[in-house]
Amino acid sequence: MSTLILRQNTMKQNFFAVDLGATSGRTILGTFTENGLELKEINRFSNHLIEMGGHFYWDIYALYRHIIDGLKLVAHSGESIASIGIDTWGVDFVCIGKDGNLLRQPYAYRDPHTVGAPETLFARISRSEVYAKTGIQIMNFNSIFQLDTLRRNQDSALEAADKILFMPDALSYMLTGEMVAEYTIASTAQLVNAYTRRLEPELLEAVGLKEENFGRFVFPGEKVGVLTEEVQKLTGLGAIPVIAVAGHDTGSAVAAVPALDRNFAYLSSGTWSLMGVETDAPVINAETEALNFTNEGGVEGTIRLLKNICGMWLLERCRLNWGETSYSELISEAEASESFRSLINPDDDCFANPVNMEQAIMEYCRTTGQPVPERRGQMVRCIFESLALRYRQVLENLRALSPHPIETLHVIGGGSRNDLLNQFTANAIDIPVVAGPSEATAIGNVMIQAMAAGEATDVAGMRQLIHRSIPLKTYQPRDTEAWDAAYVQFKNCIRPN
Predict the structure, then answer these.
(1) Cα separations (Å) of 460 from 4, 118, 303, 387, 465?
(2) Is 61 left (phi over 0), alpha (psi -120 to 50) or beta?
(3) Is the predicted pLDDT of residue 7 greater than 70, yes or no?
(4) DSSP code of 460?
(5) How far is CA 260 from CA 1, 17, 113, 146, 445, in A?
(6) What is the per-residue pLDDT for 106?
(7) Do the beta carbons of residue 204 and residue 133 sit within 8 Å?
(8) What percentage of the chain reaches a pLDDT higher than 90?
(9) Rounded CA gap, 490 and 424, in Å?
(10) Whole-angstrom Cα distance, residue 298 to residue 238?
(11) How far does Cα 16 stand from its chain's mean position?
(12) What local confidence, expressed as pLDDT, does residue 447 receive?
C-alpha cells in the first residue's frame, strides 16, 4: 500500500491554487500541517459571461485581475507562496497574436455558433476516425469544433493567431509570459491522441493548425515559468514559480478522490456532473463510441473514462427567476413535494442554454405527457430525482466498461454538500455514496503542486491523506424498490434528441 510522505520541514510551504469554474472562481492557500492539509480561501468572485453581438464571451481580463487581487492579499498578509497552480473548465481557448497580445476575449463554450458543427467537420473526416484517435465524446462545443467553426467563419482573431492557449494556460501566460499546452486541459479539446498523449497532427490539419500553433506540451507537475517582473511589482511577490497542475478542473478534482482502492466511480458534482472511473489506458471501442463516453487525460498517466452530465446548471438557471432564495429553503420545499411526479432527461438538448429554464422543464414535461411542475419544490424535486436516475443510467454503462468492479460512488465538488441529492443518488444506484471533499478541485491542485515541490510522493498517498484529514459522509441506499420503478418511468420519458 502506498503512503503519503511529507518532507519534514521547519518552514511550512504554502501553495496558491486558482480554481475557476464556469460560474465562479476562487483562490485558495493550501498548507501542509501535522494534521494533514489545511485550506484557506483568499478571495472568491463571480465569473460572468459577456453577451455581445450575438455571442457569449469570457472576461479573461477580469479573471486575471481577480488572481492578481488574491496574490496581493497573500503578499499583504506576510505569508510566503511556494508556487501557483491554475485549473479551469475545459475546451475554451484564447487566440494570441505574433506580438504576444490576446486578440480578443475568448468565446464561451455555450455560444450557439457551434450548433451543428460536428456534422460539418465529419463531412471531411469521419466521426469514427476522430473518436478512434481521441476517445473524446462528441459535444458540439469541443475545441476542435469551435476551431473549425471559427475557421469556416473566417474569424479575424483565429486568422491572426500565432498561438492557441487553453484557458488555464492563457492565465499562466498572463502571469509568466510562458506559453504551454497542459495535457489534461488539451485532452478536452478532442485534438490529443489518447494513445500517444500528444496533439494529433491529422486532426490539427483538419482545422488548419499545426503543433507549433500551441505552447510547449507539458504534463501535471511541470513548471510553466515564474511571475513576470510586472506581476511581481503588481503583487509585491517575488519570482514565484507557476506549476502546470491538472489544468482541467475535473482532472484536479479526481486526483483528490479520497478512495482507498480502485474499486470506485467518481461523480464530480457542480454546474456539470462528470461521472467516471480511472483507468490505466484508453477504453475506445464501438460501445464507448455509441454511448459517447470520453477518455480525458488524468494525473500520473491515468485516463478518466467518463460521461458529461448536465448538473446543477438546471437549478442554477431556475434560481435566476427565484430571487435570493437559499438552497436550504429550496431543498426543504423539494423534500415536502411528491415523489416521482415528473421526470426529465437532464441531458436533453433543450436544457443546454434556454432563455428560461423553468419554462423549458415545464414544456418537456408537457410534451412527454407528465404533470407539469407548478411550484418551486416540485421543480427542484424533478431536477434532483432526474439527475439521480440519470446517474444510475450512466453508472450501469460504466460497470460494463470499467476494468475494476464499482463498489462505491465518490461524490466530490460543491454537490457533495447536497444531502438530498446524495441520498437520492444512493437510492437510485443501490451502492453507498461517499460525499466529500467539497473542495476537491482546489485540493487536487494544491497536492499536484506539493508533489512538484517534493512535499508528497504519489496520488495514492495523497488520497489516503485526504481520507484521513477531510470529513466525509456516507449515504446508504434506501427505498430501492420505489427507485427501481422510477427508473422505468425515467427511461420511458426520455425523448430522442
Answers:
(1) 8, 38, 15, 30, 9
(2) alpha
(3) no
(4) H
(5) 9, 25, 44, 39, 20
(6) 98
(7) no
(8) 90
(9) 14
(10) 31
(11) 19
(12) 94
The DSSP secondary-structure symbol of 107 reads: B
Residue 99 annotated among the catalytic residues of the structure = no
Q: Which of 87, 249, 349, 430 is catalytic?
A: 249
Measure CA 429 to chain center: 22
pTM: 0.90
Q: Are 181 and 217 in contact (CB under 8 A)?
A: yes
The burial of 197, by beta-carbon neighbours within 10 Å (0-12 exposed, 13-18 middle, 19 or more buried), is given as middle
Q: Residue 348 and residue 350: Cα distance in Å, rounded?
A: 5
Rounded-to-5 percentages of helix, strand, coil across the chain: 40, 20, 35
Read off the C-alpha cell for 437: 471533499
Over range 339-358, report the average pLDDT: 95
Q: Could you tell me the pLDDT band of residue 11, with boundaries at 50, 70 and 90?
A: low
DSSP string, 379-437: HHHHHHHHHHHHHHHHHHHHHHH-SS---EEEEESGGGG-HHHHHHHHHHH-S-EEE--
| Residue that the C-alpha cell 492557500 belongs to | 29
Mean of the per-residue pLDDT values of the chain? 95
DSSP secondary structure code for residue 470 in this structure: S
Calculate mean pLDDT across residues 311-329: 93
Segments of 136-219 assigned E as strands? 163-166, 180-182, 192-193, 198-199, 216-218
Nearest-angstrom CA–CA distance, 171 and 177: 10
Average pLDDT for residues 327-345, to the nearest whole number?
Answer: 97
- Looking at this protein, which amino acid is placed at residue 337? S
**Under 8 Å CB-to-CB from 265, ≥6 apart: which residues?**
275, 276, 277, 395, 398, 402, 406, 408, 409, 410
Q: Which residues contact 12 (CB under 8 A, 6 or more apart)?
A: 31, 32, 33
Average pLDDT over every residue of 113-129: 97
Q: Do 192 and 166 meet the contact criterion of CB atoms below 8 Å apart?
A: no
How far is 332 from 316, CA to CA, in rounded Å?
A: 17
